[in-house]
Every structure is written in structure tokens, then in C-alpha cells.
Amino acid sequence: KEKKNLSEIPEIKKKTEEIEKSLGESGRLLVRYSGTEPLLRIMLEGEDEEKLHQYAQELVEIAQRYLQ
Q: Quick one: 8 exposed, middle or buried, by C-beta within 10 A (0-12, 13-18, 19+)?
């Protein structure tokens, strides 16, 4: 199955930009395809664990809509 370019999916691009802005210098976000499995990897680091879980869930929901 072909992997869609994540930067060409407007909703994913918009959400990742929002999250990165919110995290600022105190955290980071990485969204990429796995190199060995048919998976999208979402990694978040920051100070507010609850907010990080919320961001991850939002990205998962968007990815499921566009990538399945």
C-alpha cells in the first residue's frame, strides 16, 4: 500500500503545526511512517502528560480518516 505524503494532507499538517506551536520550546512532536512496518508513528514529548495524550489521540483520529 502506498504511503501518502503527510505534508500533503491539510488536516494533519494543520494539527501538527498547532501542536508544535502549543508545545513551543518545552516539547516536541514527531510524526512519521515506520520504516519496517505499515504503521504511522506519533511521538510527543512535553511537560503536560494529559495534554500530550489528547494531542496524540487527535492525530490518531485524523490519520485514521485519511490513511485507511
A: exposed
State the Rg of the chain over Cα: 12
Cα(46)–Cα(66) distance, integer angstroms: 26
pLDDT in tens, 4-57: 999 999 999 999 999 999 999 999 999 999 999 989 999 999 999 999 999 999
What fold characterizes domain 6-67? TATA-Binding Protein (3.30.310)
Q: Domain boundaries in the chain?
A: 6-67
